[in-house]
## 1
Amino acid sequence: MADQPHVAVTEGADDGPVHWLQKLLDNPWLLLFLGVVVPTLSYTVWGWVELVLMKKAELP
Amino acid sequence: MGILTSDNSRVCDTTGLKVCLQSEMLIKLNAVVAVVCLLIGVLAAFGLALTRWETIGLLDPLMYYRFTTVHGLNMLIFWILFMEMAILYFAGTVLLNNRNASSLLSWGQFGLMLIGMGMVNYSVFTGRADVMMTSYVPLRAEHEFYLGTILFAVGALLGTTNFFANLYVAKRDKTYKGSIPLVVFGALAAAIIAVFTILHGAVALVPTWLWSIGMMEAPDAGWYRLLWWGLGHPSQQINVCAMVAVWYLLGTLTVGAKPLNQAVCRTAFLLYILFINRASEHHLLVDPGLSAEHKMWNTSYALYLAVLASMIHGFTVPASLEVAQRKKGHGGLFGWLAKAPWGDPGFAALFVSLVIFGFGGGITGVTLGTHQINIVAHNTLRIPGHFHMTVAGGTSLAFMGLAYYVVPLIFRKEYSFRGLARIQPYIFGLGISIMAIGMTLAGSLGVPRRHPDIDFTDAAIKADLSAASPFMALVGIGGFIAATGALIFILLTVHAVFLGASNKGRAMTSWQKPEQDKLTRDLMSTNWNPEGAGLKPSGTSVLTLLLLAAFAIYYFANWKALADVWHVS
Ligand code: HEM
Ligand SMILES: [Cu+2]
């Protein structure tokens, strides 16, 4: 990058053969998908189902 | 003036980065509104600290709750989120050598968030929404409170969308080579979590708003809490990501640090993206509607993966500072710390925030988040004790440190009263620490949070919490010091922005001694390998072992305390 001054903050990862994990890390859309779906299933959907299935308490 | 280029950008006189002028404007506007919200929050903080200090007992109960509402919302939601929007513009354009993708989305972001913030504050200040920031159903505020919150959230979603658009445009136009920089990756993690957060907020608040205008039955309280905490807690994780990104950025700007191992740092952010959102569950640990399995899975098993990520950042950030210092020739086990630029408020804020967040916030957080221990700590003052060490002493202080660079670099104005600026991070950090320790100790004796009167005057069942009085005094005194520290920051920053000397056309005046500054600049402009020979971060390793020991002691002491109140035979 001869035309750009070298600045450490803007430095990306090194070049080289690309590992699958690196491919995942370089794919913001897949990350976005996983980051929304994984916690939604684990926390929200599971919790919501439990609340819906809860029986009404019988008054004594 | 910086050199203007044809595509509406300028070249920064200090770092050589290209700054898109539209982004610059949006960074400025969001940051200014953020600081105004911080001011409101700080003024309320004085009132709260001086109320919980029983000897003073400033506010009556109604005012106490109104101030709590004002404080929680303006601090946790408005100050933090406006700052984060500024960071997203910065990361999505300046750091990617890119221009801002959409003026529509950007102005929509700022406009809606501003209107939403205004509506919410109007509602709270006029006594129409004394519901605290959580606004738990069936407690009811007037309708504009909910609508304001929804507009604010939609604005934040537009800002996040614009950030994704910036990523897309940068990739398409090949404005950078290889992977996006680590700081941008941290911002990406924050943006992803923000999407989850905002969607949950919408699902919780839209029905609540419809209820407030009489179009629906009240939502179920348990359901509201499940959904609301999908908003309430993950928004703190946005802070964590943003804070860690700011730590890396300040590390570079103040000592020339470089992340040690890019892949490891990014993987840690990935763990945040996947696992940290379940931390919401710890607010529901005493909710009757959810099963123990749901609670255990979400707070313990899955969450520990996110804790692992924090431990990685907690190691790599100070280690990268240490390695950079060693590269400059400051050796010895702790010689790198002794020679650090302690008089640079950017560095001071970075380091103090790292220590408060790691030692204070991290240790208490993992402990309080444990299902069993939570039973003795839930809703006590230990909780605000914990989160003032994360969001206030950690995130807010890191953002203050950032401001000491953003104002000279983006507003191109210099701070005056530099001696005061140099000690401000220490004042704020000290005050928050004293207050949080006081809260933690008082909470351990059973003092509840969100309660103006621990003597329970006129209550049917008497509780004697007088043993906690000295700790409540720490809350008052520490809180007063912290709020003063925050006020100093605000005054200095407002003064710099509106009355400070311009630095257009030259590099910003460094906060560091000339010899320190020269070493840092030299390091920043060379391509060096942080994993090179003789650069082992052994001092950080010692600090890390110290942290683990402190954690182990605190954690087991809490199990002991639990066993003392809860006899199992
Ligand atoms: C400037 C110094 C600060 C002081 C002196 C201070 C003091 C306090 C006090 C005394 C309380 C009330 C605790 C209770 O009675 O339950 C409180 C609550 C709270 N504070 Fe702060 N605080 C400060 C800064 C911050 C910052 C920077 C944030 C967030 C970014 C923050 C977020 C909160 C939140 C979320 C609550 C809980 C409100 C609720 O229970 O609804 N504070 N603070
Ligand atoms: Cu939480």
Note: DSSP finds 17 helices and three strands in chain B.
## 2
Amino acid sequence: MDGVVQLQRQLLDYTTQLFQEGFLNDQFTQLQQLQDETNPDFVVEVVSLFFEDSERLLNELANTLDQQSIDFRKVDSHVHQLKGSSSSIGAQRVQNVCIAFRNFCDAQNTEGCLKCLQQVKNEYALVKNKLETLFQLEQQILAAGGSIPM
Amino acid sequence: MGSHLRRVFNRISGFVSPWRRNQAPHGRRIFHREVQQEEFQYPSNSCLSSYYSVFVARLAIMVMLAILIGLLTILTWHFTRIYTTKSINSLAYGLRYELLQRPILRMWNILNSTVEITTAQVKLSEYVIKRYSKPTTQAQQVELYEVMRDVTWALFASRKALNAITINYRNGFVQAFHRDHRSNNTFYIFSDLVNYSISGSYNSNTLSSHQGWNDQSIHSNISAIWYHVPLDPVSGERIGKPKAIPPDDQINIAGLSQVPDGVASWHVAVSKYTDSPLLSAALPVWDPSNQSIVAVVGVTTALYSVGQLMKELVEVHSGHIYLTSQEGYLLATSTNAPLLTNSSTGPKLMLAIDSEDRVIRLGAEWLQRTYGYKFPPSHVVHVENAKLGHEHYYIDSFFLNLKRLPMVGVIIIPRKYIMGKVEERALKTLIILISASLCILVIGCVCILILTNGVSKEMKLRAELISHLDARRRAEASSNYKSQFLANMSHELRTPMAAVIGLLDILICDDCLTNEQYATVTQIRKCSTALLRLLNNILDISKVESGKLVLEDAEFDLGRELEGLVDMFSVQCINHNVETVLDLSDDMPKLVRGDSARVVQIFANLISNSIKFTTSGHIILRGWCENSNAYGNSGKFPLNQKASRSALKAKFKQHRNHAKRACKKNNKMTLWFEVDDTGCGIDPSKWESVFESFEQADPSTTRTHGGTGLGLCIVRTLVNKMGGEIKVVKKNSPGTIMQLYLLLNTPIEGAGQHCQLEFGEHSLVVLLALSGSMGRLIMSQWLRKNGVFTWEASEWNELTQILGQLFRARSSVPNGGLVMQCLPSEPLKTEAPNIQDTRASVFVIIVDIGLLDWSTDIWREQLNFLDKYHGKARFAWILNHDTSNFIKMELRRKGHLLMVNKPLYKSKVVHILEAVIKGRDLEMQGRILNGLKSTRIEGNLHESLEIDSTHFEEVPSSDDSDRSEMGSHKSINAYHIAEKQKDRIRKPCPSQYQTANSCLVEFTQVYSTENNLRTEDPHQIRPNSHDAGNEGHKLMCNKSTSPLTEAECENCRGQEQHLISTCPKEHGNSYSGKTVNGQKSLEGLRILLAEDTPVLQRVATIMLEKMGATVIAVGDGLQAVDALKCMPGAEESRGKCLLQDGRTRCQTQIHDSLPYDLILMDCQMPKMDGYEATKTIRKSEEGTSLHIPIVALTAHAMSSDEAKCLEVGMDAYLTKPIDYRLMVSTILSLTKRMA
């Protein structure tokens, strides 16, 4: 049982750390609150949806920015979507970079866009890692028979 | 325009006037063009200028030719003439000189001879006188005279040319011989001696007395008598009597007066008796002392012979010669004209200018006129071209300078004689040359004309070609504009049609319509749909023509698309007694990339075309895949393909190779399809033309079958756009085979993904009791290939027979009810399942419901008969589209849960078999497991089937009318589901309402699309058992939704009211639920969520659902609008309905006229964004009292966005990320207001 308690504490610490480092915000909490017995895997589901969607968007962004003549409207709409989905799960840092990205996009600044794309990718990779770790912890807790602390 | 015209004409008339011939057509042409079209002005102008240049060139060439030929002519003529003339002239000069020289020589001779004779006479006289000097006596004197006479005669006789010789003695005695040339007489003339004194004459012999011996003495002897004696000209004998004549009567006797200084003298004299001048020479005879003259000798020569000679000379050339003295007196001429004039004083010499001969006179006059008296020093004149009278003559004169008698000879020769021929020749040559050159000129001009005509014709043609090209370009451009216009009009045309249809739907729903009105409105609806379809076809064509058609590239399940299509068309075929069969080979890729809507359109057009012309038989849609390995493996191909394929091998080898190459490059696949029907067929000559627009194989078919002839054209265009080809191929049996291939991309991961069916291990035995022979054949072959044993039966009796044989044989085997034994004698079996371990064999009997006899109640007995086998085999029923619900109920009641609609194709069979296998597994475990488990399984089943239904919803269709047709294929799955759910209904379920509702959802799909709904008798539904009552009720409920899509029978409307009355009750219930649970603040609300980001969609859905709302999520604005527009049926299963969770059903069923209480609309979405969608929705609401609240969801946090949202008609505004509480309060405020 000690193991479980320890894991629970670890999870809490980790979550707090994520919030403090700005990776996540209140939206994620709201998301967690939405999860109940009818939707036991809601957060994981949404987050994995986010991963899929984001990866698709990032790919398309990379493709679009790779073109000779960049369709900034397309880029903008992709970034917009990414911003929407990241804000929905509370991935704050991704969201912030997206805002900067859109500004560059409005200015049609190719270099800035490429830089931002790189940043977004980094942020996305970071938040993905963090969230995966988080879910692993949760899984471990569940496997150990404990409950997820809120 | 007018001024243009005038200018053109001015130019023409100014320039082309010499070429009137050309002018006329030009003018006409230009005029035509002017009249026709202004734009042709320019080409015609350029034309004209080119014509001008042609004319100028023509003219220049002609002039040059003329000059050249003229030069040549002149040169030729000149050289021939000049050189000839020169040489002839020199010759002529020689001739003339010679001619003149000869008479002059003769003259000279005459003179000489006269001189010689005179001299000789003088010498002789001197000699004689010396001998008889100083005659003293008369006798001596007489003797002297006699001697003198003899000597003189001798001389005279020797010279015939002499006219006369005279001797005049000093004493006045005269002796003379005279020859008259005219009469040829010779006379001797002497004077009478008596009168002369010898002394007297010899005394005065001094020089001083010379005076005394003068003519006067003679003349003083005038009284002397001269005698004239004719002589014999030869002998000189006197032949007549002397006659006395007066002195000097006949001849001149030269006297002393003529030798005044004692030297010889010459002069030209005339005589009375001769008509020619005479040349007289006189010489004195001196006495021996040489101191005095004793006598004078005179010799006269006629110049007659000179004239004769001259005559002879000029005779040949008809010229004239004359000799004149220096003074101009004529001496001799070549003519017979007299040389003397008879004046009163006797004959005189005449001047040449007085000559009677015209030519001589003219010549002399000419000479005098030209030179006057100032002859050139030598008197030599050579004139070549003197004009005398009307003729040209050569005139040459020579001067003969004799002492005392200078003479001038003139020769006049007509030029004609010498140069006549030459000049004639020259003239002839000139004429010939000129005429020849004229001929050449004319011919050359004609040639030039012809040549340049060719050139100008070519230019004309070219100009016309240019203008034609121009016109064609314009025509093409205008046709292109037309196409573009049509393409642009597509939206404008479709929108009002959609509105018309929508309004008609609403009207049909209205229950105050009378029967007639209702029928009329239904007819209008049908017509509008047909019109819309036609419009769509035309617009498709124009879209393709204007190049605006862009093919999508999205992944889709080809098999399912085609199955849906076949489902759809089988409904149409059912009335035709035509069987629709889908026969896709197993190696077809499951997923392909391409434009699914267009692919479906291709086959829809082809199949509908086939249906139109097929009255009985079958329509088979075959499909197979061609890649390198499938090619070699013929076993994989579906039935009937081998033959046609081998025939095709050669034909399409190139395509294939090409396709293969393409395949390897970008994972493209060549998919072959053919649509094979048993219709009337197409004449081979029309195989190509049927694909043209507005073309039908037989124009007369338009009357019987209708249609615009656009379908196949669209098909071909689409097929070509997809890199394929379509053609009609030969078919042995009646009918048509349309064969086509498409090049479609396959997703890399899905390329080899074929549904591998492993039925073999389940040892299934399938009895196919199907009425359609083709479908049955194909199906059984396919099943056998997949390791499933099959029997076939085509009618009821056969079925019972097979069943009897099968199960009798089986029951005879004791061990286990499920063991089956092979019966070799079975006539229907081709592949007897000759296996011992068939214990686990599962019998599946697929029965076409059409096999039952529906005329009376026999079918009940037949069902009962089949019931006997119920435990031993699983039944799957193939239902017709018009199978009544009552029958379905009956079947269901009897435990036949597997029902599918016609037609039967592979995936349906796969479903049936899977269900059977699962059912068997279930059965095996069923005794142990509880009901919950079973529901789970059924739930799974349900799920799998539902995926089906969602899939069909995704079939993109070009318009609404199509969509409603396409919807029909959902029905089969719906039935599936329905069966399953029937169980669920029976089962005690905590949320019965929801389950029932879901059931209802499925049934809606069924009814919404059935045209045959009318055949359904609602009374059959109503008196259902209590258990089914609930369901029946829901069904009625459903029906209220269907009228919007399809024609509804009137009795349905009755239920509608009933339905409405029941609605509030349920509503009330939901509200009561809401009050109980504060958390569920949105309980009972139906919310349409339009959101394209999956994450957001999911989050929002969960948020709303947690609060009790029912959420239908769609992916874009277009879907949202569609969902609102065709609320019934279609929308529930629409894509993102999120039906995974069995419990949380989309309970979107409609209680009132609005399907949703609220719409949450994301602003930025693909296809149609939120603003557009809102506008469309608001537009459609115009004129109605409806107003659905729309809440904008946007990540744009700026106030301008909010303003924009409100401007397009949204009611509220939420920013992302969604704030939970704010959203709830917004929604509640809006819905409450509405309530």
Note: The radius of gyration of chain A is 17 Å.
